Amino acid sequence: MTREILKTAIRTFPPAYFALPMATGIITIASFTLGYEQVSDILYVINNLEMGVLGVVLILRLLFYFTDFRNDLSSHTEGAGFLTIVAALCLFGSIQVLLRDNPNLALMGWGLAFVVWILLSYSFFILISYKEKKPTLQHGINGSWLLMVVAAQALSISGDMIIPYFGILPQMKLFVTLSLFLLGVLFYLIIIVLIFYRTAFLPMPPGEFRHSYWINMGAAAISAFAGATLVKDMAGVPEFENFIPILKIFTLLFWVGGTWWIPIIGIWEFWKPTPVQVRYSAGYWSLVFPLGVYTVCTWHMAEAIELPSLKRISEIFIFIAWAAWLITYIRMGMQLVKIFSGQKRIPHII
């Protein structure tokens, strides 16, 4: 029985499940940034375990169920979810530098993330472009498409943290990370317009809302985080100092945009045709990650624009992020216990 459950789990492994180590990773960084080092040390261990387990599951799926993998990658609604792998690897690398001063392992994570990003982003777009039967915008796009933004900005942030350890010229490092940041900005401007149009002008019953729409806020927040990181790194580099005023505007713009989305998505989350039930689904990690990244981005933005009073927001949001992560983790554990004890059977094991 357990063997069959594991086989089903591998075959139906949700593309976006690396949102789990994404969420744990960003909350680890948030805890470390705000001075909760004991919490960050515990989350560091958990994050490493998550990356190890999910990495094995992904490799097994590629080896034994490649057709299912390819079908998911060519899906308009599921394919972009694979980019959670890129963001999770970038966060893994950043944590190795921040918490353990291990740049070699961090560089391996960032390099692998960059290669995976190239392969997945191009494969996803080419596969959906050549499909003969395509869904309408109403049924083909959701918040997971903004993972294209999250992946690019995660590469920019992680690169800023890791590359200096290896003697790369600051000018070259900033050229790479600024280019990734600007690509993320371009993706956000394109995709958020499509999502805005879909939600504002096409029917969207409450039952069609997916947790991935929290990435509307998360993509803006991580863009603000990437902008704030670049602002601090460009100080003292003459070739790039002229970019600083523009980057400050971009950073504040994305922070304001991310903040604006919070109450709207919160209303969507609870606007249901039936009473709200606290029931675990893998999509909830797409909710936890934006809360963590909003905490971090606000802290760094406050430093970048020299407005330290805004850090108070991060000091409040860290508790919201911890609570969301803990509740979701407990619900995930309860569901896994029910599945492996034979009390519950669902299409997607996790």
Overview of this protein structure:
With 350 residues, the chain is an all-alpha fold. It has a single domain, classed as Voltage-dependent anion channel (Glycosyltransferase, Alpha/alpha barrel). It contains 13 helices and no strands. It has helices at residues 2-11, 19-33, 37-64, 66-73, 84-100, 103-129, 137-140, 147-162, 170-201, 215-234, 244-270, 285-304, 311-340.
- CATH H level: which superfamily? Voltage-dependent anion channel
Given the structure, what is the number of helices? 13
The Rg value, from CA coordinates, equals 20 Å
Q: How far is the N terminus from the C terminus?
A: 16 Å
Q: Return residue spans where pLDDT drops below 50 for at least 5 consecutive residues.
A: none
Chain-averaged pLDDT: 90
The largest β sheet comes out as: none
What are the SSEs and their pairings?
Elements: H1 2-11, H2 19-33, H3 37-64, H4 66-73, H5 84-100, H6 103-129, H7 137-140, H8 147-162, H9 170-201, H10 215-234, H11 244-270, H12 285-304, H13 311-340
Helix pairs in contact: 2-3, 2-5, 2-12, 2-13, 3-4, 3-5, 5-6, 5-8, 6-8, 8-9, 8-10, 9-10, 10-11, 10-12, 11-12, 12-13
